[in-house]
Design a protein that fits this description.
The chain is α/β, with parallel strands linked by helices and 722 residues long. It folds into three domains: 5-251, Vaccinia Virus protein VP39 (Rossmann fold), CATH 3.40.50.150; 258-388, no CATH class; 496-720, Vaccinia Virus protein VP39 (Rossmann fold). It is 32% helix and 23% strand. The protein has 24 helices and 28 strands. The strands form four sheets. Strands 20, 21, 22, 23, 24, 25, 26, 27 and 28 form a nine-stranded mixed beta sheet that branches. α8 packs parallel to α9.
Length: 722
């Protein structure tokens, strides 16, 4: 049914009670209104689901003025409860139906907060209600609240039928919210031959089953059929195929990484019940609900007959110790559970995102996240205890605290770890210099290994290090001796994602090898200097690279030179300026001023000062279409665009990958298991790529490297995305 301009203006916000009251008041009373899917089209599929169930309890949330309830009532379904938060429409519907349909019930009620006991209904019939709540500007919050309520008031074995246009954001929510413990079918609603609707309606039916069971979706949407909107239908088919792959992986026995929401939805069964020997990996926290995101493991003690000190506890593992056998291996983790004397232990692993965060802030952030993981234990009244392994930092020496107008407050510090790689003999020998960006909740931007110089080395580098050492000379000697005897080891990569960047160069190993053999230099541009660790490593590791670093903040160059031994020469230069403008201005220039067909490398390794987009690295404008097109032109006939991607939201990650796929013909990914970084490798053509002989390419690259890097191991995790 068409709406007048006044009616249309009344519904600029589908989630507003006032707007709906205004809408129904303007329409007047006495007739029904259907947004889509008229009764003749939905009658057959709906009755096939309700056949023989005339005496059951049916809920119609967000009923509006639809004729759905009266049609069902007249067919013998008497126990129907209709709810809507618009008093105007509920009053109108009562006037229309009170006498002729006396058993029909009407309630003024918010469908996201219904006042019904758990398990009150056998059927829930939603006709556009979820779609109305899922305004793109509002996000998923209201939709999730409504589906939580629907799941709560539905009986075990009950059915929830949702008539929807199945837009991607709505369908994604339905698929994820009903993944665990539900049987799901979906079918397209036939349109009238005379209908000129631009949209296809779908009926999604969810049957409430056993918690934790995952079943694939039964789809009745036929790719060969004709629908009023084929693009819409094909998008639904594609989404269902992807979802079924996810569901199949849950049934394959692999160790799945769950979200907290998955667990709340019953992915591993009833969280209130302890299951001896249960161990599940999960991610806690998400953008908008917590300061940080955490990797965690939930473990229920194997022997529940023991005497426990705690029914549930949280054990925090700092980044410096996360790779120790005791915390990294499943066998070691069970030993921690045993020693913690907890019936259930939630081990939380900190990483680079939490490096300089106050531990009390971390505990406060974690508290509401772990609350839903606490098992039911009526006798326990004490709050859940937080335990923690030592952070691994034996001693900390702050060298400099400085504030930049561009980057904000920064800290340069030397730290001595209690344990390095589990080797106790190294405790007093290895120390690290760290650069911390406070704007990103204490992000450790760079970590460099400090080594002791021989007397001759000290003399050679005295000038280079004098400014860094003189500041402390009159004070204490530092962590383990004079600062004069220490320098940064540029053959060491402190960040595992930097190692992945190096390993990914295997994709163009033959082009690099050919350039080295002919004496040509390979144009390599790095956006983002940081402490200079990556460009200094590349200069020493691959001497035939011609490296240009683009850095927006002049103070970064000063800090890198003063504290991290960064220096420039003919092979390594720094351009101070905006990285995006630099790439745009040089998009058509020839590498090294020579052959325009030569291989080029472009590395984007810069963090974001604005985390509102969900991206920690890189800033959002580095993954906009305009920059990606400039990068493609910059690479000319071939080469690699390498992006260090850090995003808390899987949707943001998918968005970035989708944009890269649209611009680049070839896309690869290296996901770091122990960290949040994902390194993406994009190329405009296959010209220089070693896609068919990656093992040989990795061996070839390793032979070129002057410093040791475990190339073969990392390349085994390389995934082709396009």
């Amino acid at each position: 049914m068409a709406t007048t301009p006044a009616l249309h203006d009344a519904l600029l916000d589908f989630t507003s009670r006032e707007n709906w009251d205004k809408f129904f008041a303007l329409r007047g009373d006495g007739d029904s209104f259907e947004w889509y899917a008229e009764w003749p089209q939905i009658k057959a599929p709906l009755l096939s689901m309700l056949l023989g169930e005339e005496g059951t309890e049916i809920l119609v949330p967000g009923c509006g003025s639809s004729s759905l309830s009266e049609q069902l009532y007249d067919l013998g379904f008497r126990r129907i409860t209709n709810v809507d938060f618009s008093r105007v429409i509920v009053a109108d519907m009562l006037r229309r139906h009170a006498r002729v349909r006396p058993q029909m019930r009407w309630r003024v009620m918010d469908m996201t907060n219904m006042q019904f006991p758990d398990g009150s209904f056998d059927f829930i019939l939603d006709k556009g209600g979820l779609d109305a709540l899922m305004e793109p500007e509002v996000g998923t919050k209201l939709g999730m609240k409504y589906l939580d309520e629907a799941e709560r008031v539905l009986k075990s074995g009950g059915k929830f039928a949702c008539f929807t246009l199945a837009e991607s954001h709505v369908l994604d929510l339905l698929l994820s919210e009903f993944r665990f413990g539900w049987d799901m079918t979906i079918q397209a609603i036939a349109s009238e031959p005379s209908s000129k609707s631009a949209f296809q309606t779908f009926m999604v039916v969810m049957v409430k089953g056993k918690m934790g069971v995952v079943r694939t979706i039964k789809s009745l949407v036929d790719q060969s059929a004709e629908y009023c909107n084929m693009q819409q239908a094909n998008a639904v088919i594609h989404a269902l195929q992807n979802e079924n792959k996810i569901r199949e992986s849950h049934n394959s026995g692999v160790d799945i990484l769950f979200s907290l929401r998955d667990l709340q939805l019953g992915a591993i069964g009833d969280l209130k019940v302890i299951v001896p020997g249960r161990r599940r990996q999960l991610i806690l926290g998400e953008q908008g609900s917590s300061l940080y995101c955490y990797k965690a493991v939930l473990m229920d003690a194997k022997n529940q007959n023991e005497t426990f000190v705690y029914h549930c506890g949280v054990f925090i593992v700092p980044k410096a110790r996360a790779q120790e056998w005791l915390f990294a291996s499943e066998e070691g983790q069970w030993l921690v559970v045993e020693s913690a004397k907890a019936a259930r232990l939630i081990m939380v692993f900190l990483d680079s995102r939490h490096a300089s965060a106050d531990i009390d802030v971390v505990k406060k952030d974690l508290s509401p996240l772990v609350m839903d993981l606490e098992p039911e234990y009526p006798e326990e009244t004490d709050p859940m205890p937080f335990m923690m392994a030592s952070d691994g930092v034996k001693q900390r020496d702050i060298l400099q605290e400085v504030t930049s107008e561009i980057t904000g407050p920064m800290v340069v510090e030397d730290v001595l770890y209690e344990n390095v790689d589990g080797d106790q003999s190294c405790m007093s020998e290895k120390m690290f210099r760290r650069l911390i960006f406070k704007r990103s909740s204490g992000l450790v931007q760079s970590e460099a290994l400090l080594i002791r110089e021989s007397p001759s080395d000290e003399t050679d580098s005295k000038t280079e290090n004098s400014s860094a050492s003189s500041k402390k000379k009159s004070q204490k000697k530092g962590l383990t001796g004079s600062k004069d005897s220490l320098r940064v080891d540029h053959s060491y990569l402190g960040s595992s994602y930097h190692s992945s960047i190096i390993c990914g160069l295997s994709l163009v190993a033959s082009a690099l090898s050919a350039a080295a053999s002919s004496g040509e230099r390979v144009s390599t541009t790095i956006v983002g200097l940081g402490a200079g660790s990556l460009p200094m490593f590349l200069r020493g590791c691959l001497p035939h690279l011609n490296i240009e670093v683009v850095e927006l903040d002049p103070m970064m160059e000063e800090v890198a030179a003063k504290y991290f031994g960064f220096s420039m020469d003919e092979q390594l230069k720094v351009h101070l300026g905006d990285g995006i403008k630099f790439i745009e201005e040089n998009a058509h220039s020839e590498p090294n001023g020579k052959d325009s067909d030569a291989v080029r490398i472009l590395i984007v390794d810069v963090d974001s000062s604005d985390l509102s987009s969900g991206l920690s690295c890189p800033p959002a404008n580095f993954v906009e279409d305009a920059f990606l097109m400039s990068a493609k032109r910059f690479l000319s006939a071939g080469g690699l665009l390498i992006i260090n991607l850090v995003a808390r939201s899987s949707a943001v990650k998918e968005m970035v990958i989708s944009r890269l796929k649209a611009v680049f013909e070839n896309l690869y990914s290296l996901q770091l298991e122990e960290d949040v970084n994902e390194v993406l490798f994009a190329s405009p053509s296959k010209r220089y790529l070693e896609i068919d002989h990656l093992d040989e390419a990795a061996t070839k690259l390793k032979a070129m490297l002057k410093f040791p890097v475990d190339v073969e191991s990392d390349m085994k995790n390389l995934q082709r995305l396009q």
